[in-house]
Design a protein that fits this description.
Elements: H1 3-18, H2 24-35, E1 39-46, E2 52-58, H3 62-65, H4 69-72, H5 80-83, E3 90-92, H6 93-96, H7 99-102, H8 107-115, E4 119-126, E5 131-139, H9 148-187, E6 191-195, E7 201-204, H10 206-213, E8 218-221, E9 224-227, H11 230-241, E10 254-258, E11 267-273, E12 288-293, H12 303-310, H13 314-324, H14 329-336, H15 340-354, H16 359-368
Antiparallel strand pairs: 1-2, 1-5, 3-4, 4-5, 6-7, 6-12, 8-9, 10-11, 11-12
Helix pairs in contact: 1-2, 1-9, 13-15
Amino acid sequence: MTEVDRISRSTLALYDAAMGRARWSDALEQILHLTGMEGAAMIVFDTRTVSIHDWCFRRIDRRDADDEPSAVAGLDDRNPDIAELPDTRLTYDRLHAPQRTIDRPDHHDWHRRTAGLRYYVGGVTTADEAISASLSLHRGRAGGHVRREEVELFQHVFDHFERAVRIGHKLAMAERWTPGWEAMFAGTPIGIAFLADDGRLLRCNDALRCIADAADGLVLEPAGLRALRRSDDAPLQAAIMAALPGGDDAASGGTARIARRSGRAAYSVLTAPLPRADAPFGIVAPVAVVFVTDPDSGADLPQDRLRDLYGLTPAELRLAVRLVSGESISEIAGQLGLSVATLRSQLASLFRKTGTSRQSELMRLLLCVPWQVGAR
């Protein structure tokens, strides 16, 4: 196998590890095969506190490394020689550690005692402002100091290591955050749609599909959103166009009201532009978002949260839910077979517990309580 083949293998192994298709230890093994070094260490740590999050070793006894993982990296910032070189991207023994330093009983001696390693080359990169990662290669006394051509080869490998670390970090963050965002997207009672730069519908949530399925004013089509009434569709399309990129004017978004065939309260529409981002590999990125609110959606209030937040009784909760649905005190009294005086007493208790003084203030407060995300 040629050196070019070995470089290609080690490079691909790094990206496979970043994308979760292989283990980082396998990538380190490929790098050792390429460079001829005797041991490898990868350390992931907090950039601000230098506390270690994780580490991976190859041909280094992990039982020994557990004693002092920061030393394994060969980049321990407690080493005064490294502390004097804060802007140095790569470190290696000839650069910052003369023989007299290596012979001291410090972390160099720890390498020798635990893994038989003495000389090294390494580097540190940042995945983001909070997370950094180091890669270091080590060998024993017989191998001698790291030579210039070896540093140059490591530089090539380290360039790909930096990219792989950042790719892996972004993918891990996306994997961690996506379920939460998806739950919020699906659980909100507000209809949401994402549009392409030509107004095409890319994605929408269940709430907007429910509004469209009612066929009471809005229609969802592959080409985008449309109002059933022509008189409403013109302002809707104008609001959508105001959120799409085009011309010299910056997109600002717009608003529209969509009347309903049923005669119920009109839908409220808000459009807004999204930050532009490069979309490689033919991916169509959303450039605008549309929010559709149904005043009569009848979304269930999070009664357990209201109870815990304000200490409401079952009777007070029942009254709050009916008030939010638009019923009047007299209507509620007739349906429940209670006197208006009883309900007004419960309403006064609601005012006191929620710190409000008018029914309109109470409604605003109740409608601001978060819905149960992901409860659908």
